[in-house]
Amino acid sequence: MTQPTSSLTSLLADLKSATPPDAKRTQLRTIVNTFEERGFAVILFFLALPAALPIPALGINMIIALPIILLTLQQLIGRHRIWLPEKVKKRTLKTSHLHAFIDKSMPLIRLIEKLISPRLRFMCSSKLTPVIGFFCSIFAASITLPVPLTNTVPAAAIALTSIGIIMADGLAVIAGIIVGVLWISLLTYAILFFGMEGIELIKEGIKAWLGLS
Fold it and tell me: Which of 6, 43, 112, 202 has the most CB atoms around it within 10 Å of its CB?
């Protein structure tokens, strides 16, 4: 069964409606319930997109990767809705901060949505959720490498796959998986044939491409 199509802007508008400004704080439960079956893709997108930024700080990789891994492993075992411990669901954040985040995200999201359109919908079928979760969990695991800048490509692959699922764009899902697989293949080749020096070569290559060297 193909998941229902909704734009990310409409999903965020639904979340804003479900969290009126007079409610000073919003539980995580409300956020998860609002997105329903789209929860995995929406939250993975917002976790992975900033993670794709070329942050050179050591240690940040693990912080970025852990929540992504927890979500993608749930996809891998076939869950269609996010599971969180009850204690975590009851945690809250300021509603004003949530609304500010949504408002600031909208221009970028509208730009991305202009490039994404429903096609190859079979790739967004709920039957393929474990397969997509398998690939994305591997991509997320590669983010944990203790090497600066290696979070950029796999996080971008997860973000592209996620927005593809949200918008029922199977082409974006395929592109995200291909980018991630190529990245994992490159890492594997570099480690097998060059050891940790290979990782250093990849890091220097990314820095040169980004103009950071």
Answer: 202
